[in-house]
Write a structure and sequence with these properties.
mainly alpha
């Protein structure tokens, strides 16, 4: 039985929105792909491999400096090398072509996020989710980083998102997984196979952590059995030729590097001598999701309070919206939790490893907020009137031209700034993307004040939502715009994760304090 609780999709509007989102993401990132010069080892390592492909013509196993087996599979380097040749740089790549695969993959991830969000809860929810992802620090940083992580993560996200879509379609038709079309299995297998070509066998593991448990929960062991069919072999057959040829070219050193060292040893703790604690991601999750981390934590706290207020007892009752929207939110939260635990258990930890989880965070936020907004204002005309008449939205209209001016000005300023200046700024602050105002870089307190202001606005809007029937939730749009601008300014002016390490501490301490106050007020009867 079809679920009609979610908004009907206008395919033309969805296509136009997706196209506009693609154009916007390319306009944002392509002008920045050349800045700064390569100064990080991680980028330089991949650039050497691409240059070796262009120099020697070896597209199978190009050795770094003619001696060292590459640490990552070949898909990223193929895309970069082909793009460089098409762009007339067949002798040696520059920063733009080194980072182009990440920019394209980032745009693909944005489109995937929009499409699954639109199908789950309507076009507005999909667009909000994609824009939230676009404003996160972790996504921005790796979209402009010449490494394999964004290409790999985009493919993993595509597999999981399509599984969420295909599984729900089977459930709505009251069928079992044996009725899932072979083309759906083949498409997910193709994305998985490309993921293996991007970063190795981890592409088999991450989607399986979501697909197998959900198939087991909804259909039992028979559901898992129904998934194993010939179309699944595409995930193996697609990367197999390259792995065989590379093994023949690199003998045992290739297998050791790609299979044992990069996958088995990195998970079981034989790579990082110092090692990182289990709670590593509890510290660094906030910086990668920032500046949305304050909204994420605030919304979770708000939903928990709503649960106490309305005495909701089931997971489906905890999330707002219709059946399909609740289904999506449950799986998005499951996606976040499973990946968080998996990466925490692994001994090899990097902040960038959280990238495949960021779309789930953005989707859970986007769908949850839009569905809450719809529930609080059932009449569309009332929603629009409330949005326009609410006080803070007048500030939003006033802030919009300034935001457009700042973003547009960067396109004209960056090309005339000498690259070596941007590189010096990058080397000084370690994790820069671009640097427009190096003079402001020592004033991190300015950034902290902005973050505090955003946090206060968020908590204020959520508090007001109880007093005015929830209308203030619509004002969170102002916070999202400010957050997006804040993220851009951080990357343009400050260009460092140092400020985020301070901000995450503030966010955690602030949320602990807010939770204590909420608990005290609840017991005193001031919250009902």
């Amino acid at each position: 039985m079809e679920d009609n609780s979610s908004p009907a999709l206008n395919n033309t509007l969805v296509f136009l929105t997706a196209f506009g989102l693609l154009v916007y993401s390319l306009l944002v990132y392509l002008p920045l792909a050349s800045f700064p010069l390569v100064f990080q080892v991680s980028e330089a390592r991949e650039g050497v491999v691409v240059n070796e492909i262009l120099r020697s013509g070896d597209f199978i196993l190009p050795l770094r400096n003619g001696e060292i087996v590459p640490s990552k599979p070949i898909l990223f380097h193929w895309i970069s090398a082909v793009a460089a040749c098409l762009g007339g740089s067949c002798e040696r790549i520059d920063e733009f072509y080194l980072r182009l695969p990440s920019v394209l993959a980032g745009s693909f991830m944005l489109l995937t996020t929009f499409l699954i969000g639109a199908w789950i809860a309507g076009r507005v929810a999909g667009l909000v989710s994609a824009l939230l992802l676009l404003s996160t620090y972790g996504f921005n940083r790796l979209t402009l980083d010449g490494r394999v992580d964004m290409v790999f993560s985009a493919l993993v996200v595509a597999v999981i998102s399509y599984w969420i879509f295909a599984l729900r379609r089977v459930l709505e038709r009251e069928q079992n997984l044996s009725h899932m079309p072979n083309k759906d299995i083949a498409l997910m297998s193709a994305f998985t196979g490309l993921g293996v070509l991007a970063k190795g066998p981890l592409a088999y593991v991450l989607p399986s952590l979501i697909i197998l448990p959900t198939a087991l929960i909804y259909f039992g062991w028979r559901g898992i059995k129904d998934l194993f069919r010939p179309a699944l072999l595409l995930a193996v057959l697609l990367p197999l030729p390259w792995y065989l040829l590379a093994t023949l070219s690199g003998s045992s050193s290739f297998l050791f590097r790609h299979v044992l060292f990069e996958n088995v040893n990195r998970f079981f703790g034989r790579v990082d001598k110092a090692g990182k604690p289990f709670y590593f991601y509890l510290e660094h999750f906030w910086s990668q999701v920032g500046p949305l981390s304050l909204v994420f934590v605030a919304l979770v706290g708000f939903l928990i309070w709503q649960k106490f207020a309305s005495e909701r007892t089931t997971a489906s009752g905890f999330f707002p919206g219709g059946e399909r929207a609740r289904y999506g939110q449950i799986l998005f939260v499951f996606w976040i939790a499973v990946f968080f635990v998996f990466f925490s258990v692994s001994d090899g930890k990097r902040r960038g490893y959280l990238l495949p989880m960021l779309p789930a965070v953005s989707l859970s936020l986007g769908v949850g907020l839009v569905e809450s907004w719809r529930m609080l204002h059932a009449d569309k005309k009332v929603r629009i009137r409330s949005m326009l008449q609410d006080g803070p939205w007048s500030k939003l209209v006033a802030a919009l031209p300034l935001t457009i001016i700042v973003i547009t000005a960067s396109f004209f300023v960056l090309p005339i700034v000498p690259k070596f200046l941007l590189s010096v700024a990058g080397a000084k602050f370690a994790d820069t993307v671009v640097s427009l105002g190096v003079a402001l870089s020592h004033r991190a307190s300015f950034v902290l004040v902005l973050f505090v202001a955003l946090s206060v606005l968020t908590m204020y809007f959520l508090k007001r939502s109880k007093e005015d029937g929830g209308g203030a939730i619509t004002n969170l749009g102002l916070v999202f715009l400010l957050s997006n601008s804040f993220s851009r300014l951080c990357q343009s002016w400050i260009g460092t994760e140092r400020c985020y390490s301070w901000l995450q501490r503030f966010c955690v301490l602030g949320c602990i304090h807010a939770a204590k106050r909420l608990k005290t007020n609840f017991h005193q009867g001031t919250i009902r």
